Structure formats: C-alpha cells, structure tokens
Amino acid sequence: MIIVLKPHPTPQVIQHVLERIEALGFTPHLSQGVSRTIIGVIGDEDKLQVEPLQAIPGVEQVVPILKPYKLASREFHAEESVFEIKGVRIGGGHLAMIAGPCAIESESILFEIAEKVRDAGANILRGGAFKPRTSPYSFQGLGEDGLKILKAAGEQFGMPIVTEVMDPRQVDLVVRYTDIFQIGARNMQNFDLLKEVGKTRTPALLKRGMSATVKDLLMSAEYILAQGNRQVILCERGVRTFEDSTRNTLDLSIVPNAKGLSHLPIIVDPSHATGRPDLIPAMARAGVAAGCDGIHIEVHSCPEKALSDGPQALLPHQYAKLMTELRQLAEVMGRTIDVREGVTV
Prior knowledge:
Helix content: 25-40%
CATH class of the largest domain: Alpha Beta
Mean pLDDT: 92
Distance between the termini: 46 Å
Number of domains: 2
Number of helices: 11
Strand content: 15-25%
CATH superfamily of the largest domain: Aldolase class I
CATH topology of the largest domain: TIM Barrel
CATH architecture of the largest domain: Alpha-Beta Barrel
C-alpha cells in the first residue's frame, strides 16, 4: 500500500504518519521526491484498512498495491532509479559497462586485464574471489586474497569493483572490499543471503536465476529492498531452455518487461547467457537496443589458460572493438556511458 502525502508536508507531519503506520503493526518506507512525498506500507494488505490511514492528517491519498513486490514496483517509485557508485551512474539513460575476468587468478593477470578494459571504456571492474562451481573439484577462487587484489586493481585504475558473495557468513568480509555485491543466479533465492545484503548499504547486482520468472526476480529484489538497501541492480544472464547450442537462452524481453513493472535498473550479461564469444557482441548490442542499463562481459587476456569460464571470455582487443560499437549505438539511442576520469576513448 502506498500513502501519498499532501504537497510540502512538514517533518512533523511525516513523522506522525510514520509513527501511526508502525503503531498499526506495519513497516513504513519513506520516499521523498522533488514535488511529492510517498510512504510505502509493507505488510499484509488484507489486514490493513484504507480508512484509518486516509484519516491521518497530511495524507492526500491511499493507494492499494496488489503486486507482492511493493518497493520494487513502479507504483512505489514511478521514475527510473539512478544509482551513482564512485562517479559511475547506473540507470536513467546511464550505462554501466562491467568487464573483467570470471575469477581473480593473480595480481599480474588482473591488473593487465583491468588496464585494458578501462582503456577500452569499461567503467566497473568485475572479478570473482569466491566461485560457485558445478564441480567441487573446480577452482573455487582465492577468497580474501582475491578480494585484496581486486580492491587494489580498482584503486589503481580508478574503477568501482563488483564481486560475488555466496553465503550470509561472507557478507561482513566482502563488504570491506567491494563497491557492489554480486548475487549469482544460484543464490537468487537464497533469502538469508538477500536479507544480509539488504542490511548493508552497499549496492547489489542481482542475477536472474536459471529458471526464474520476472516476478521471481523482483520478489528477490524485494527481500533486499525491504531491509533498507535501496540500491538493487537487476541482471539478465540467460535462462535454461531446451536449446543446447548455447550455454543458456538470453531473454531480452525481460528488459522492457522489467522496466514496465519496476523502477530498478536492469543490465544484460551476454557472456553467461550464450557461453560463446562469437555471439557476445551481437547480444550485447541487442541488449543496449532493448533499453538495458548496462552490459556485463567477461574478458581475459588468455582464455585458454583461464581457471574459470575461459571459453566464454572475450579477448581485450575484441572487447575494445565491441565498446566502440556500443558507444555508437548508445549515442543513437540517447544513452550515455560514464567514462572514468583521465581515460580517452
């Protein structure tokens, strides 16, 4: 349920409304725009009557929301959310260009890749320190040592960093290093993890589960939002279908679909979606054309030696060529890519 306050409410009026909502046993979420102030009421709407809320001084309108994802909905926040992370804006026409290796393997390899993707125009550096692998015998990541390397690379090349968190017990560790949490497809419905990430104020990149619907994805985002963390970025990385010529099936319809339902930014990961470097450029261009808020691509200087997902990584020169194309496409569509300070592309 959404409570719309009368124009220009005083702090006392806002506080009174918040207190009344809490007294009724519900959780209020305040959203103050330029011209309007609204308060989201979180709880079972079947147990909440409109009349008592409508009678509170300062309340202009009470709007029931039937969607189970309330804070993620357009009703709660009509305009697109825009997040700024160390000078990089995501959403509202600003494209996040995330690039880097699947796994952090060593300082020398990561620094080499980071420099090349930054020079190509990437504005966020990715790398995994904890790796959820299908086989327990595969490389599982460097852990905290990898986080230290990633943070150092981000500082060296002036890029915010994103890395995966797999377990609620890792949140306190990872938050000390990263600028953005990544929650992988396998953990999209790890609700304890989502709640722990929600208790932080560190932005979260939430990947769509392999068999998840759009509603499932938004409900998972709701877990993070409900804990107070308002900076959630959705990510389409392909879903499982009968097709076996690609790693997954990239569902680009989710981009306009999710944007119609939610104010949250959504990016596209063609690397995990296709698993094939020959398909990544076309799918990246298609993602921008569909209106996404960023592209997430794996890049490695020597994919044949990569310890994780090498076959789906672009070479640095391939990524540079793709970035040239994406900048041209973004310009045609009226989108912008925030370039890191001191970088000429």
